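Structure ticket #2291
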Amino acid sequence: MAKTDPRGRKVKILATLGPASRSPEMIARLLRAGADAFRVNMSHGDHETHAATIAAVRAAEKDFGRPVAVLCDLQGPKLRVGLFKDGKAVIRHSAHFSFDRHPAPGDENRVCLPHPELFGILKKGQRLLIDDGKLRLRVIVADDDHILCSAEVGGVISDRKGVNVPDAVVPVPALTDKDRRDLSFALEHGADWIALSFVQRPEDVAEARRLMGTSTTALMAKIEKPAAVERLDEIIELSDGIMVARGDLGVELNPEDVPPLQKRIVATTRRSGKPVVVATQMLESMIESPAPTRAEVSDVANAVYDGADAVMLSAETASGAWPEEAVTIMHRIAAQVESDPGYAERVHFTEVQPDSTTADALSYASARIAETVNVTGIIVFTGSGSTARRVARERPSVPIMVLTPSQKIARRLALLWGTHPVHTKDIGSFEEMIAKGKRMALRHGFGGAGSKLVTLAGVPFGTPGSTNLLHVVTLSGDELSKHHA
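Resolution: structure written out below.
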């Protein structure tokens, strides 16, 4: 049975803050209930509100004495239809319907599509999905000014409803002018992660990186477009983390395609050693109900069994009636799964091969030692976080305490599986490393008298990327007495 960390689980919980949860009181309650990181959705609210939200998280972080990650999620481009004469119209099943570039209000036969970039790229047989896929149209003929479709699934279409184009790479940048402003704001206010929406190709991630300049903020690519799935490996390589954004994936793909794809994205990202978040509709019914459905519980459990680094709550905590309960239940599901005797076997179903580097070899060895010797934790000293990612990639049976002199890195690691990040002063010698490792292990509940811990670090100390030292330490009764003195 896998040992759990002092928080009771290894998978992390990312909770979205919004009108129902951004007060300092509720942020504290969510942290107490089990949240490890908070998402600020830049699609809603203004900068003044977001600044107050981030400040409230930082104040709570200080009170709790534990690093907390803030993720700012950029909206990305939104494709929308134009306006209708009566605010809406009905498209009959099997009827023809046209999109054009004429600004005149629409009716049951046509409407303006105010996105010139869509004209000329669509081909016969491709689909247009309206209002999160409630209406499904198939292109009959398209040219530079006109797209004639047949309605496979008709219904009511109304002003400014969203349009999804699943079968084509849309020639729009992943970052709009609003996103650029939001990105600058997020960096200025110390966001630890930026989530990039509407990623279709690696170039979208590269563009965001360019705009972020020398910032140490981490970049997470949201996989929500079929085009992104086709170039998944390249996108992972350019990103610091991946989010499986199942909402839009479920609109643009058949529903039955999403679960195997989720497993594939999680496994592929895990092999890279970068964190992967499973998001959208995980406890959707808890927006209104104090209890989830059995299917939702199974959905969260499956993501935990697959070894995802984090599971995310969206509207459940942002605007729902039961934000604290949603976090509590997600925490309970995760803790229960991780205490299942079959969990370790399932989480290692994804095979992870270490690279041929000393750091990878030692990280691999630390996990094997944890299985062979009765250790209570792995202590990692890191400046950049890379050793922590390597160890977490192995999904060891014991928790990982990460000691880092960088507050930024400590916060970033709040989304990494199995880690308990601690911001602390750097070490300068082997003796100091052992003493500090033991002291922090006792302080953070990683063992008692007689407990063994694996310690990983790099010599010379303070040199990034130099992990070359593995040492097993034993906590003595004397140290325990000093700790309690």
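Closing remark: The chain has a mean pLDDT of 94.
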